[in-house]
Structures are given as C-alpha cells and as structure tokens.
Write a structure and sequence with these properties.
Length: 1265
C-alpha cells in the first residue's frame, strides 16, 4: 500500500468535546483544524464537517452541507473516535441479551465479588450491560487424570484447540433454545452475547448458538470464543457483552458517517484506530476493540515523534486534558495490557497501557480539614471553570489564570452565556479571594500559630498547582518503577491542551531533564493516526510447557497465525516489504498466575529455541527486570500464542522548523507568579520561534491550541523538526521550617503515600508466593518516631490498626530506646505450620495450633539475614501434638527477604526526604498529617453529636450483636460534642471462647478505623490520628482481648466483621451486611485451595444493599470458574445469587450467593463461617437478612447440614453447597417509594471520574485481598 499522492488525506480524532483534524494536502503541505464535536445548529457530524471545510478552503469550490461530499479528491481517512467510550460511560449501547451456561446467570453481576471502593457503604457499581439472561442447558468439563467421579461416561470426548481433552456432559438443546431466543427477539432485543464455559478452547457449542441466532434474525451476535479466546470466563464475558452492546452503535455511527459522502466512501481507504494502537478497516471496527480509540492515537503520535532509537532513551507520554491526565510509556515497543477496566467494565483485549488519573485543567479545587485537595471531581466542559463565566467552580485552570500563566488576550472570545466573551480574570480572582479568606479563617482557628499567619491569593493558587503536580507525579513513578525502570532517565513528551503549563514542574519533581512538546501537541492524537500502522492480530490459547519437545508444535501454530495475518495485509494492498510480524508467547512459571506477554524479537532464535525467537531467555530477562529474580528449577507454561502483523505506510511529516539569524522577540512581557514571587515573563508566539536560539525561563510560548510555561531555570529551543525541546534545570534547595504549611501538608501526604506505594511495588516484585505476588495480600506503611501510623498502602481494612500495634510493641519493647521503625511491611504467608495446611484450622483452640508465633524477632543483624534462626522458628510448631512446622519454607524465606527489601526501599526513600527537608521537618509533617486525620474524625463526631442531640437529647449510643455461639459483642459510645471525642466501651462483651473466634485488640482497632473512615465520608489520611479522639475500653480476657495463647484465626476473618456490625448499629449508619467471610478450603497432601465467598450487603438510608459482594473487613477476589476447574479436582455446578435472602424494607438488603462445588477426588474440606444462626440485622424497621447455610450433598443422596465450622473428609461425587447470608433491610417496606436507584447509579457513573490503566489495576487489586 503506497502513500497517496495528489489527493487530500485526513487523520481525525473525534473526542468528547473537540474533534481534531490533521490534513495532508496534495502539494505536501499540512493543515490542522479543531472544531466542536457536537454543534447540531451548524453541522451533523464533526469529522465530515472538518473534511468539508478543508476541501472548500483549499480548492475554492463550494461543498454544501446538505449534499454528499465528492470523494474523488480524498486519498484516505483515518479516524479515532470516542463513540464506543461515550456509549459505555452513558450506558447508551444496544439492548442486549446474555446467553450463558446454566448455573451462571449472575456470574457477571458477581464478577470478582470485590467492591470498587472499600469505604463506600452503598457499594456503587455499574450495572451490567445486558438486559436479559438466557441460561442454556449445555456443559463441557476438562478431562482430568485420576478423576474418580462415580458417574456415567460422558456423551462424547472432544479435543480442544490446545490439545486438551474435554468431556461433553450435556449436549446443546437447540430446539428448546430456539423458543427462548424467539421470545427475546419478540421483546425487541436484537443483540446477543454468548458465553459458554470452556468455549475458549472448544467453541463448537457457541458457534451452533451463533448460527441459530443469526438465522432467527439477531442483528448482532458476539461469541466469546471469537471476541477473545482466552481463559477466564468473567473478563471474557464482560468483553463479549461490551462487543454486543457497542458494535451496533459503532455500526450506526459508521452508516451515518459514510452516508455523507458520494458512493458511501467505497473507493476511499477508511481506517479506524483500535485500542491497541493499530489501524483496522472500517468494516472490522468493533466495540470490544474501540474503547481507547481516541487516546491510542496520542500514544502513537508521541512514540513515533519523540523516541530516538539511536539513544534508546525511553519516553513518558503526558497528555493533560480538561477532565483527566493520561500517562503512558514507550521504549521502542508499545506497552500493552490484556485486561483493564473502562467505565466499570473489564475488557479482555489488547490495549495500550494508558493510565488515566483524576487531575486535569477542569479538576476542582477543595480545602477540607486543613488539606488542599485537587479532584477527582471535574467541572467538565459545561459549566467549566469559574473563568468560563457560566457559574462553574474553581479549577486548576483558574489557578493557572490567577498566577498569570494563562493570558486571556491569546484566547478566543467564546465564553459566557452568549459564548462571545473572554476568559474572566475578575471572576476567578473573586472566587479565590473568598477561598483564601476561608482558608485563613480555618488556619487561624484550628492550627497552631504559623510563622506567617495568613496566605495570599497567589500562595493559595500556587498551592493547588503544586498539589495537582504531585498527584500527576505519583502514577508516573508507579508506572516506571513497577517494572524496574528509573523514572529520571525518561524524556517527558507533553501534549494535550493543559499539559504545557505543568510539564517543567512535573519533570523537575521527577528528576527528568528533558521535555519535548511536538508542534502538533494540541492535535497529537489526530497526527498519530496519520503515522500509525495497519494491524492484524491473531491469537489462540495454548497449554504447552516451553521446552524442546514442544518447539515444533509451537512453531506450527505460530506459522499458521502468521500466515493468516500476512494474507489479510496482502489483500489490503501492502506488499511484503511493508509487512512485519511480531510473535508473542503468554508465559508464566508453572503453579503461578503471573503471566507475561513476551516477544522474541530481542532474543534471536538458535538451535535450542523456537524458530521465531528465544522466548525462554526473553521471558527470564523480563521476569528478572520486573520482579528481581527468576525460578530456574520451575517449568515455564505457554498460555497463549499471539501474532501481531503490521502494515507500514512509511508516512512522515515533511514540515521543518523555521530558521533565522535573529533571536525571536517576545510578543509582550507579563508578570507571572512563581516560588520566588512575581517575575517578568516574556511571551513568545510559536510561529515566531526560530531554530538555534534558546529562550530562558521564565517565559510563555503561545501555540494555537496550548500554552507552554518555561519555568525559571529552564531553557527552551526549537528543534529542526519544528518542535519545542525544554532543558529542565535542577530543583533549588528548599528550606522549610517546622511550622505547619497547609500546602506542604498536602504534598507531604502524597509523598508519604508514594513511599508506601513504592515499598509495595518492591515487595510485589521480589516476593515469590501466590498470596503476596499475585493476590497482593500485603501492606506497607510509614510510621512516625512514636511508632504511630503515618501512611499505609494499600488500605486493607484488617491491616489498618494491626500494623501500628505491632510496630509500637517493637519500638517500645523493654530494653529498646528511641524510635527503631520508620517503615514496616506485612504479608500473608500462606502456611506457617499448625494442625492443618494453610494454617487456618476451623477448630483450633490454641495459638500454637495455628502455626509459628513471633513476638519480637530480629530478622536482620548487622546486614545479615538470619536464615537459620527464622527457619527454626518457622519449624517450631512441630513440637506441639498434631502440629507441623511450615509446609512451604522456601516461599516463607523468599517472601521475608522481599519484605526486608521493601523496608530497605522505604527507609531509603524516607532518608532521601530527610536529606531534602531535614529530620525535624519530616517528623513534624508526620505529626501534622496525623493531626489532619484526627481533625476529620473530630468534625464527623461533632456533626453526629449535634444531630443526635437534636433528635434524642442524648449523646450516648449503644448496640449489641452476637456470634453464632451466643457470645455477645457489646458497645456503648459516649460522645463529647465540644471536643469531638468519644469513648468506645466494649464492657459487657463475652468472655474469651474455646475456639478460634477470639480477636486480639489490634483487630478491634482495625475495625474501628475502618468504620470511622466510612462515616467521615471523604478521602482522608488513614493513620494513627483517626484514633486520637477515641478512647477504647476493651475488657481483658474477653473475646476482643484474649489471653496470649488463645486461638485467634477466626477472630481475624469473622469476629472483625461482627465488631463492624455493632459499631454501625450503634451509630445507625446502615443495616448489617452478611457479617462473614465464608472461609472455604479443601485439599489433600499434594495440593490445597482456599477462598472466601461474598454475600449480601446491608441497605442504608437511600440505597439498596448490593447483592453478591464482599463487605467491610474483606474484599477478596474469587478464582475464575475456568481456572478453578482447570487446576483443582472440582467442578463448579452453580455460582449465582440467592434470591430473597436479603432483608426486605424501604430499601432491601443485598442477596447472598449459592455456590456448589462437586469434587472429583477425595479431599478434606474445611469450613469457617458465621451468621449461620444469628441473622444480619435490619435497621429502622427493615427485616433481617437470611442466615447462611452449609450443606453437603453426599454421592449416595444424603444431605447433611455441616454447621458453621467443620472439617470433613469428602469422597468423589460429594457436593458442597454454600448459601451465604443476605444483608439486612433498611426502613419499613410500606415506606418504599418508586425505586430510582438504577438511574441514580448510572448518573453517578457518568459524573464520577473513572481511573484506568495498570497503575490503577494494581492499586485496586491490592485492595481486593
């Protein structure tokens, strides 16, 4: 395919607010154009209008809007569009039905069972995309060696695409299915998503359904086996639903777009950008590959224009827009992820790793409890910032305007109600003056005397800019350091309308010394479309070890997939010299879930490798880079084979920078505010810049679509390509006093959290166990000199108070003087010995039966890891009757070393902070951050006390609930309204129990911090300060403060939930949630499995409880059905909601779950549960939720009630049926009004900012353990 000549070529990015057009003219010149994406008074479609304007202006001919455009002058059109993204955000896709294997109708509603926001009691989650569900009678299972099921032979055996054998237990009943499908069509639903178990390797049943549905008249049929043939039913299901939901909308848009051209664009090469950064023909553009169509163009744009393969200096893409900022990385290859969320929907498809954070020009500014807060709420395009003159709130844009960094004289007059006025400096300053007054009043009333008693308007505005910059630096650090890269060694490529104002400050903070801003930075997404390749991908699942006897089979599959890609690209007009192939293997160490998509291009093939590359070397190199170690004796598995074929156009920009013999002259000189105060700042127009002359900061460069700030100490030059390159000077030393500065408080809060996050990255990278490396069941934290918690990442509820108690015990241990710990890490070691594998016995009665016990143990002495001593301690439980030492010493030792490495990293980072600001300053701000959390809790208690006093005249609240054995958990709270303090008195709570539901004091404190954070209702630092206004009284030798050797494993996972229930009951916050983690484990001498299962959430004032979700002190993800059946001797017969188990009321409680496990071999089953007798309470007249039930269906037909806690030997053919509790209802049912929750939830989804990308996924995964 050759570059078109003598015609007009267009690359168009249709965004949510603006549409950007890049046009290459017949004479080689280039034009850019920006217009509103939605302007129905003037035109119907923005891309069509952009093409029309360019043709009309360049040819001098008239092209009337009401007539189809002549295509004879058009060579090609390439487009990126947010049509799919917007339809997903607004839930405006096609009416869709889901067809799924029977027993799994609610699978996508349950999803991973984790809630998205730990402290959101309402559990706001996006609704599923389908409107109806059809359960189809069909079932295939993977054949397992040694399966002992006493059942009839399968109807037939089949071989999957991976070579694995499957048993067809139930054939597809097409006759019955046809009746159901006709009924769906009759109800006006014509789009169908098909999701059958194990169809990723055996799609025959799905294909039969597809043929039937198309014959009946469904206009869109999406099969999960075709959309993305990868293991894991849940993300594949979400993906196929998105495809069925969005593709008709895309098709409808394309029909409208093509109808505006003569002949419907039949003779024009029209390509659309996909989420993976590759172009595809218009007719193949589909919903599941379209959600990042717009941003992907920007990544291609900066990657092609900013990366220099000669120097191999990696680039960070920094795209700051109005609502959010996109951050990505390029180092010679596009970085893809294969599973990510967009608008609350998990998509399993190749996507560029674009990390979106809530800090844009329109991000709102808040001052809360002494902290400067930026976002995540945004002013949007309407009403926009205050300066837009439409009654909007203060934003980052207003802060830049107030500091003189945005110049109204260089903006068009398009603001105000009539859209004919300039930006309003006056309105912005008036609002900032009011905010400054409020801040100064707060500081004078609530904080200790400061060296400078009041802040100026400029200091307030500058403070918000600094906080916004720090918020944008955190994901850049995480994105680079997560994979072992040094952030400072990158170039910052800045584009988007707002990025130029922040680029120098961001680069300086991160230690980068170069910023690149392309000449088309304002329309770089459109320009990137012109530079992108046409991509054809093929992928298929695999189940082979990567070893010599598998190379020939892998090569055969690779050759077949490559041939398919090449044939398609050849048919599209490319010659062989323009086509390249890149082969990837999705590889992991056997027994782990941490798979990497590995390219062999960097490791040439040899006689002992596949023909397309040495993938084992590539895999181990990348594994070592990202995780810090390899596992040489562990076999490597190949899960998927992927081939990416690219057809390259060879198009490059011919525009060069202007040369001249004189330095450019400023258009004007203005005054801008910086750290040094107001400085004279020269203002230059981009078109006046010439190559070879530097511009010293401070300066402002005005481009047509953006404003670039060159800060003091920086120097800007125009490159020969016409781009701006800024050399960033080092940060000048900062001298701070120990007095409180509200801006620095916000920045230190970000810094301390960043340290904890970076510790977590080191721990995850260097650990080896599944619990820590893959489930991310750990916490890292920074502590003050008194051992008090300062910052903690992530916020795993049950860790919140426990880490502080542990650290303070070490710090103030007899014989230890002064602070010892500044950082600490906590990890879940899967086995530390005891009476059962996994160290979570249902019937333990002493601490020793639960494994190794460490009170105070020095792990590293004078830099030496005490391996023998810690080994002895881990094996010590073997001395007790019936107990074993640790069953996985290798993983224990490896993970402990990883924790030491994480602590070392934290200590290093705290040390760097001390080097920059001084020990006294760092320790002072540790205290101030704790005080800030304390203030937020005091404000909440004062507010509650005022309302309570008005309603009842009393400042005391109390509540009581019971464990299943009748043990009471009793609480009485006395609140001091003036101080905003409270006494939480648990006197009257039951005695320590003979069993393992005893909860150490730290567990109660964790539950209390969690409840306080939920009741505060806003994002606050979670640290020691939360408990400063609280006095906690716990009777000794009670279930909440047991003796030293009491069994406690159930207290952590069960009693903690009951403590939360009692606190929320006392404060009348919401009805009880399921109050249980439903701990289930099974195994044999060779292997074991552990899971916790969701239930119903409690209803509250204004919301129904969420069904099938984890609540309060846990948030674990559950194993995907296909992974479960592939790796363990079990068949998942049912995983669905338990209808009617939620308590009724004005707002009803969420339903629990039914989960049925059929065992294929002999196993030992252990169950550790609660709420089997005591029902989750309703509130204010709402009914109680249903209790849980644990049933065992024996193969001989008997049904046994197992009770709440048991261990039992199971035979093949036995089935465990778990019925989890529902949540309590809220309010009397007769008070129920018209239910508007669904619409309000969707509205909330649209208004709330939605983060995305690998950094967000990592943080969310950490909070789902």
């Amino acid at each position: 395919m050759a570059e078109s000549k003598g015609t007009f070529d267009f690359a168009i990015d249709r965004g949510g607010t603006f549409t950007d057009v890049f046009a290459r003219l017949p004479d080689g010149r280039e034009r850019v154009l920006k217009l509103l994406s939605y302007d129905p008074q003037n035109y119907q479609d923005a891309p069509t209008e952009g093409i029309r304007r360019v043709l009309e202006e360049e040819t001098g001919r008239s092209f009337p809007r009401d007539q189809p455009l002549d295509t004879s002058l058009i060579g090609w059109i390439r487009m990126g569009t947010t049509v799919a993204t917007n339809a997903l955000l607004e839930r405006q896709g096609e009416r869709t039905a889901l067809l799924v294997t029977r027993g799994f109708r609610d699978l996508l509603h349950i999803g991973t069972q984790a809630r998205p926001n730990l402290f959101d009691l309402e559990v706001c989650m996006p609704e599923v995309l389908y409107e109806e569900v059809i359960e189809v009678d069909e079932r295939v299972v993977l054949r397992q060696d040694g399966c002992q099921l006493p059942r009839m032979e399968p109807k037939r055996l089949v071989t999957g695409s991976t070579g694995e054998v499957l048993e067809v237990w139930q054939e597809l009943d097409l006759q019955h299915l046809e009746r159901e499908l006709r009924g769906v069509l009759a109800r006006g639903i014509s789009s169908l998503a098909v999701l059958l178990l194990h169809s990723y390797i055996w799609p025959t049943h799905e294909k039969a359904v597809g043929l039937l549905a198309r014959r009946l008249g469904f206009t869109q049929v999406s099969l999960s086996s075709e959309v993305m043939p990868m293991i894991r039913m849940v993300p594949r299901g979400h993906t196929v639903c998105a495809d069925a939901y969005l593709t008709p909308k895309i098709r409808h848009y394309l029909t409208g777009f093509t109808s505006a051209f003569k002949g419907g664009l039949k003779n024009v090469d029209v390509l659309f950008m996909q989420s993976d950064g590759g172009l595809t023909p218009m007719e193949q553009f589909c919903g599941s590959r379209a959600v990042l169509s717009g941003p992907a163009g920007g990544v291609v744009g900066y990657a092609v224009t900013s990366y220099n393969s000669t120097y191999n200096k990696p680039v960070i893409g920094f795209d700051m827009g109005g609502t959010s900022t996109d951050v990505s990385r390029y180092a010679g290859q596009y970085e893809h992820v294969f599973e990510a969320r967009t608008a609350g929907v998990t998509l399993q498809a190749p996507q560029l790793d674009i990390n979106t954070v809530a800090a844009g020009g329109g991000s709102r500014l808040f001052f809360r409890s002494g902290m400067f807060i930026v976002g995540p709420e945004s002013a949007g395009a309407h009403p926009g910032p205050v300066c837009y003159r439409k009654g909007g709130p203060l934003t980052v844009t207003d802060a830049n305007l107030a500091l003189g960094r945005l110049l109204p004289d260089f903006f068009p007059h398009i603001f105000g109600p009539g859209e004919n006025e300039p930006l309003s400096v006056e309105e912005t300053m008036r609002h900032f003056q009011q905010l400054t007054h409020d801040i100064n009043h707060f500081l004078s009333s609530n904080q200790p005397p400061c060296a400078k008693s009041e802040m100026s308007v400029e200091e307030v505005a500058m403070g918000f800019i600094r906080v916004a910059n720090e918020a944008m630096c955190r994901p850049i650090r995480a994105l680079t350091q997560a994979k072992g890269h040094d952030t400072s060694l990158h170039v910052l490529a800045c584009f988007g309308g707002a990025g130029g104002q922040h680029a120098c400050a961001i680069a300086r903070t991160l230690g980068m010394n170069t910023v690149l801003i392309h000449k088309y930075s304002g329309v770089l997404s459109a320009y990137g479309l012109a530079l992108a390749d046409v991509v054809e991908e093929r992928q298929q699942p695999c189940s082979l070890h990567y070893r010599e006897n598998s190379y020939s089979e892998l090569d055969r599959h690779i050759q077949e997939l490559s041939q398919c890609c090449q044939e398609v690209l050849l048919k599209r007009g490319f010659n062989r010299s323009q086509i390249s192939m890149e082969v990837f293997l999705h590889m992991r160490y056997e027994g782990t879930d941490c798979a990497l998509m590995v390219s062999g291009s960097s490791c040439p093939a040899h006689t002992h490798s596949c023909q397309s590359g040495d993938y084992y070397t590539a895999f181990t190199k990348r594994y070592l880079k990202e995780f810090g170690f390899t596992i040489p004796d562990r076999p490597v598995m190949v899960d998927d084979i992927r081939v990416r074929g690219s057809g390259t156009f060879g198009i490059r920009s011919m525009t060069v920078g202007k040369t001249g013999h004189e330095a450019p002259r400023p258009a004007k000189v203005t005054r801008c505010y910086f750290d040094e105060g107001y400085l004279d700042t020269s203002v230059y127009l981009w078109e006046d810049l010439t190559c070879g002359y530097g511009i010293e900061g401070p300066a402002i460069i005005i481009q047509k679509n953006s404003t670039i700030l060159v800060e003091p100490g920086c120097r800007a030059e125009l490159t020969v390509g016409g781009d701006v390159c800024i050399s960033v000077g080092g940060d000048s030393p900062t001298v701070l006093g120990t007095e409180l500065n509200a801006v620095r408080l916000s920045i230190f809060s970000h810094r301390f959290m960043s340290i904890a996050e970076q510790m977590g990255r080191v721990l995850q990278r260097t650990s080896i166990s599944t619990n820590i490396k893959e489930r991310l069941d750990f916490s890292c934290a920074v502590f003050g000199p008194d051992g008090g918690l300062v910052s903690n990442a992530p916020h795993i509820p049950v860790h919140l108070g426990a880490m502080q108690e542990t650290v303070q015990y070490q710090v103030f241990h007899p014989g230890v003087s002064g602070p010892v710990f500044f950082v600490a890490s906590r990890g879940h070691h899967a086995d530390i010995g005891g009476i059962t594998p996994g160290s979570m016995p249902p019937h333990s009665t002493s601490l020793q039966q639960e494994g190794a016990v460490f009170t105070s143990f020095k792990l590293v002495t004078e830099g030496v890891f005490q391996e023998q001593a810690v080994t002895d301690a881990l094996m010590a439980p073997a001395q007790y009757p019936g107990c074993s030492g640790t069953r996985n010493l290798h993983d224990n030792l490896s993970d402990l070393r990883a924790q030491v490495a994480a602590n070392q990293r934290g200590s290093q980072l705290v040390g760097e902070l001390i080097d920059s600001y001084g020990l006294t300053v760092v320790q002072a701000y540790m205290g101030y951050i704790q005080s800030n959390a304390e203030l937020a809790v005091r404000d909440m208690l004062k507010d509650f006390a005022r309302h309570r006093q008005q309603q009842t005249g009393s400042l005391e609240v109390e509540a009581e609930d019971h464990m299943d054995d009748g043990t009471p958990i009793k609480l009485r709270v006395q609140i001091n309204e003036q101080e905003g303090s409270a006494v939480f008195d648990f006197s009257g709570t039951g005695f320590e129990v003979w069993g393992n539901c005893n909860a150490p004091r730290a567990i109660t404190l964790s539950a209390l911090i969690y409840c306080l954070r939920c009741m505060v209702g806003q994002d606050i630092p979670l640290n020691q300060g939360c408990l400063a206004p609280i006095k906690v009284i716990i009777p000794p030798r009670s279930i909440l403060q047991p003796s030293q050797n009491a069994a406690v494993v159930g207290g952590n996972v069960l009693t903690s939930q009951r403590v939360v229930d009692v606190i929320f009951k006392a404060f009348e916050v919401c009805a009880a949630s399921q109050g249980c983690m439903n701990n289930v484990s099974f195994g044999s001498e060779k292997s074991g499995y552990y899971e916790t299962v969701a239930g119903g959430a409690g209803a509250g004032p204004g919301w129904n409880g969420r069904s099938g979700v984890h609540s309060h002190m846990t948030n674990t993800r559950i194993t995907d059905p296909e992974i479960l059946e592939k790796r363990y001797p079990v068949i998942l017969e049912q995983f669905s909601l338990r209808p009617g188990s939620g308590g009724r009321g004005c707002y009803h409680g969420g339903d629990g779950i039914i989960r049925k496990l059929l065992f294929r071999k002999k196993v030992v089953l252990s169950v550790l549960t609660e709420r089997r007798s005591m029902r989750p309470y309703g509130l204010h007249g709402g009914e109680n939720g249903s209790p849980g039930l644990n049933l065992l269906h024996r193969a001989d037909g008997r049904v046994l009630n197992l009770g709440a806690k048991t261990t039992i030997n199971l035979e093949p053919g036995d089935m465990f049926s778990l019925h989890t509790p529902g949540g309590g209802g809220y309010g009397r049912e007769e008070e129920r009004k018209e239910d508007t929750q669904t619409s309000s939830s969707r509205l909330r989804l649209n208004k709330a900012f939605s983060e995305r990308g690998s950094v967000f996924e990592f943080r969310r995964a950490q909070e789902c353990v």
